[in-house]
Amino acid sequence: MAWNPNIHRSFDTIVAVHKDFPNKVIEPCGNCRQLLIEYCPDIKVILNDYDNIGKMLV
User: Fold this and answer.
1) For the whole model, what pTM was predicted?
2) Could you give the CA distance from residue 57 to residue 41 in angstroms, rounded to a whole number?
3) CA 21 from centroid of its chain's CA atoms
4) Are 58 and 34 in contact (CB under 8 A)?
5) What is the rounded CA–CA span in Å between residue 23 and residue 18?
6) Residues with Cβ < 8 Å from 36, sequence gap 6 or more?
7) Dmax over Cα atoms in the chain, in whole Å?
8) Tens digit of pLDDT for each residue in 5-54?
9) Domain boundaries, the chain
């Protein structure tokens, strides 16, 4: 499906992963965090804390 600027989508949670770290959740980089704070201040990010995975605000 191609991107369509006339379709509005909203997200409440995101997750960051990396191809070199399969099956591991990573935290968003500084640039991504800044964009999230500016454009999606209420979005939650899924993070892992050693043994646990949970959601938190940016």
Assistant:
1) 0.63
2) 8
3) 16
4) no
5) 9
6) 14, 28, 43, 45, 58
7) 41
8) 787 778 889 888 888 887 788 888 899 889 888 988 888 998 877 677 67
9) 13-57
